């Protein structure tokens, strides 16, 4: 992103689904591959870029993340790691899903990774029923179907504790 | 997620009675769900099939498959007391039979047309060669971009010449972006075509100067090179303009070969620097030092004189109680020393043992330098002074360094030594370009304690006085409590109030 730093005075405006506008420095926006591609393909940065799938609260979080990562140099990796682990710490599930969708839409790999990791950690090591309850996953298998699926993937657990 | 036969009937009814929430997880697009699955161990990802129909067979489209034979049992319910054999108890090793069958079945079921990432981390036996051949072909067929082949030897006596030899197609595959090879053999017969390779890690593989050169010249976009437990080469000339980061962890050659776990302990071992060197070693190292200064061609010698007798000629004298073994490859002689030239490098990390007689010829673009290596000093005065000279030499070669981390090797922290040593950094004017323009952060690892009249103190004092844009000096101490000698607190207090040329500079003590 070295090239972006030279132009870091440029700003662009992002508009959330609920109509709030955010003025963002260009080098911060470039954390998003989506925005980077838009800027590269010369969508004029004077225009307002609408993000119809992302609400203001989520967008504020996303931009906070982008700013931190855009401003930190590579030598501050340790600092970024601790920022990342704090970033999602006490986030509720709803906000986390909004964030993972926003990161996916805006193509912000680092943010997508930490959000996906967080969800994976919630799934990990828990019995199926508990996972279903946490995420409100409705079990649409009949008991017979479920037993069949279990039988089918039993191969994967032979030899595992 | 564990597949237990939990509540197939009862729980399901009770969950129906609960107020239904929105299942946002299952509504995520497939790509995001697969991304989440890629952070789960494969067996857990497979287990998600049981959740609901949405999840049936979903994992088979996962673009990332990671197979590890060793599992850390981090069951939170498990409150076994920590004992000396905790290590072996808590690592669960899948039997070979199970591991190989698991990999085979998983690959067979994989539905993804492009498997971006594949990792195999397991104990290799020559009888598995044809299996591994197939797995690597799977990588080729599925357009894998990130491949980790991390082999373990059966035991320390395993014949290293029977380690897995990488199939030739891996060398010509131009899709790879990231590769990591451990404990295997690299013998590219034709050209290497790693046109997209950005990150390369190689560990415990014997490399030659020619092979390294071939790899580097065939990897035009390589950004990061990591060599761990490395040996067999004496020249590392990196002219790739794209290569910004070099990591060297624990030199392994030429002669002493330790047992596996000892080598690992060594990896982080920065505290052992106080071990007195063998007298004879020292004499030879000193002799070599003078000679190589000429050879360094104005560059700076970063010289290693380990207690263990790196030079084969010293083998007889060196006796530190470890059983010596002949180095890997039997009679193969390792070239002496290591010469590093990397004019485009921005970040350099050296930790663990450093190759004997290591010289940084050209690292003029370096911004971030971590020197956590053991540059062992014996207790003698001349050696301590020599190390100060070398540190000075390093500082002048680090013309653009902004961040510097220094291991414990460099300085004496007690109040012993001559006046010259104790006041080395403050007794005369020393000018370094990085100090006046760039150096912002200095970290000292594991400084157990230090006194006011020590060599270490004079160095920190020197930094504060001369580093004009310094922002932070961080001193890690292994303990910060009443056990520290009084001298430490006296010295620490003095440092905190010492005049500094950068008004923003702070001195921090951390655990």
Automatic annotation (TrEMBL), chain A:
Involved in ubiquitination and subsequent proteasomal degradation of target proteins. Together with CUL1, RBX1 and a F-box protein, it forms a SCF E3 ubiquitin ligase complex. The functional specificity of this complex depends on the type of F-box protein. In the SCF complex, it serves as an adapter that links the F-box protein to CUL1. One of its GO terms (biological process) is ubiquitin-dependent protein catabolic process. This is SKP1-like protein. Residues 11-70 form the SKP1 component POZ domain. Keywords: Ubl conjugation pathway. It comes from Rhododendron griersonianum. Part of a SCF (SKP1-cullin-F-box) protein ligase complex. Belongs to the SKP1 family. InterPro entries: SKP1 (IPR016897), SKP1-like (IPR001232), SKP1-like_dim_sf (IPR036296), SKP1/BTB/POZ_sf (IPR011333), Skp1_comp_dimer (IPR016072), Skp1_comp_POZ (IPR016073). Residues 109-156 form the SKP1 component dimerisation domain. Pathway: Protein modification; protein ubiquitination.
UniProtKB/TrEMBL annotation, chain B:
Gene3D superfamilies: 1.20.1280.50. It comes from Rhododendron griersonianum. Residues 258-285, 302-319, 326-337 have a biased composition (Acidic residues). Residues 1-22, 257-338 are annotated as: Disordered. PROSITE patterns: FBOX. InterPro entries: F-box-like_dom_sf, F-box_AtFBL13-like, F-box_dom, F-box_SCFL_complex_component, FBD, LRR_FXL15/At3g58940/PEG3-like. This is F-box domain-containing protein. It holds the Pfam family LRR_At5g56370. The lineage of its organism: Eukaryota, Viridiplantae, Streptophyta, Embryophyta, Tracheophyta. PANTHER family: OS06G0556300 PROTEIN, OS11G0201299 PROTEIN. Residues 22-70 form the F-box domain.
């Amino acid at each position: 992103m070295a090239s972006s730093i030279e132009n870091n005075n440029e700003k662009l405006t992002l508009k959330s689904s609920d109509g709030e506008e955010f003025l963002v420095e260009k080098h911060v926006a470039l954390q998003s591959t989506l925005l980077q591609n838009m800027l590269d393909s010369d969508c004029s940065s004077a225009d307002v870029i609408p993000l119809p799938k992302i609400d203001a609260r989520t967008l504020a979080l996303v931009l906070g993340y982008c700013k931190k990562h855009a401003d930190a140099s590579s030598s501050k990796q340790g600092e970024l790691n601790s920022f990342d682990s704090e970033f999602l710490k006490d986030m509720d599930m709803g906000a986390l899903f909004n964030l993972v969708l926003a990161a996916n839409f805006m193509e912000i790999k680092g943010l997508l990774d930490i959000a996906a990791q967080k969800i994976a950690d919630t799934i990990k090591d828990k019995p199926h029923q508990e996972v279903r309850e946490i995420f409100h996953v409705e079990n649409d298998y009949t008991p017979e179907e479920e037993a069949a699926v279990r039988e089918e993937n039993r191969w994967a657990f032979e030899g595992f504790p | 997620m564990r597949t237990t036969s939990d509540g197939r009937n009862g729980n399901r009814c009770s969950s129906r009675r609960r107020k239904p929430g929105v299942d946002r997880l299952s509504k995520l697009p497939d790509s995001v769900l697969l991304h989440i699955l890629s952070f789960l161990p494969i067996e857990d990802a497979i287990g998600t099939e049981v959740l609901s129909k949405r999840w049936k067979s979903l994992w088979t489209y996962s673009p990332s498959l990671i197979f590890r034979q060793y599992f850390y049992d981090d069951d939170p319910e498990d409150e076994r007391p920590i004992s000396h054999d905790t290590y072996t108890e808590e690592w669960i090793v899948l039997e070979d039979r199970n591991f190989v069958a698991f990999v085979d079945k998983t690959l067979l079921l994989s539905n993804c047309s492009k498997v971006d990432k594949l990792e195999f981390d397991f104990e290799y036996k020559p009888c598995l060669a044809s299996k591994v051949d197939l797995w690597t072909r799977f990588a080729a067929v599925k357009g894998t971009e990130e491949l980790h082949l991390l082999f373990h030897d059966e035991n320390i006596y395993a014949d290293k010449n029977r380690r897995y030899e990488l199939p030739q197609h891996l060398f010509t595959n131009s899709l790879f972006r990231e590769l990591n090879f451990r404990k295997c053999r690299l013998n590219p017969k034709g050209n290497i075509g790693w046109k997209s390779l950005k990150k390369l890690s190689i560990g415990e593989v014997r490399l030659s100067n020619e092979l390294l050169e071939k790899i580097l010249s065939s990897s035009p976009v390589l950004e990061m090179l990591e060599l761990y437990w490395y040996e067999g080469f004496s020249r590392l000339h990196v002219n790739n303009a794209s290569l910004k980061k070099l990591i060297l962890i624990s030199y392994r050659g030429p002669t002493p070969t330790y047992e596996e776990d000892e080598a690992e302990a060594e990896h982080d071992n920065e505290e052992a620097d106080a071990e007195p060197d063998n007298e004879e070693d020292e004499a030879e190292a000193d002799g070599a030092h003078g000679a190589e200064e000429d050879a360094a061609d104005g560059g700076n010698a970063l010289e290693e004189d380990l207690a263990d007798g790196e030079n084969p000629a010293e083998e007889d004298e060196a006796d530190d109680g470890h059983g010596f073994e002949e180095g890997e490859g039997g009679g193969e002689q390792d070239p002496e020393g290591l010469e590093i030239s990397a004019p485009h490098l921005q970040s350099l990390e050296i930790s663990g043992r450093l190759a004997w007689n290591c010289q940084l010829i050209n690292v003029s673009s370096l911004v971030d330098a971590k020197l956590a290596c053991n540059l062992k000093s014996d207790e003698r005065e001349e050696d301590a002074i020599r190390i100060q000279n070398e540190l000075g030499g390093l500082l002048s070669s680090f013309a653009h360094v902004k961040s510097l981390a220094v291991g414990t090797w460099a300085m004496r922290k007690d109040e012993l030594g001559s006046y010259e040593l104790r006041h080395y950094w403050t007794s005369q004017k020393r000018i370094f370009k990085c100090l006046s323009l760039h150096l912002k952060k200095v970290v000292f690892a594991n400084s157990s304690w230090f006194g006011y009249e020590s060599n270490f103190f004079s160095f920190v004092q020197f930094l504060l006085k001369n580093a004009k844009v310094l922002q932070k000096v961080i001193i890690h101490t292994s303990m910060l409590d009443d056990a520290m000698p009084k001298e430490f607190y006296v010295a620490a207090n003095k440092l905190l109030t010492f005049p500094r040329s950068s008004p923003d500079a702070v001195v921090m003590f951390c655990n």
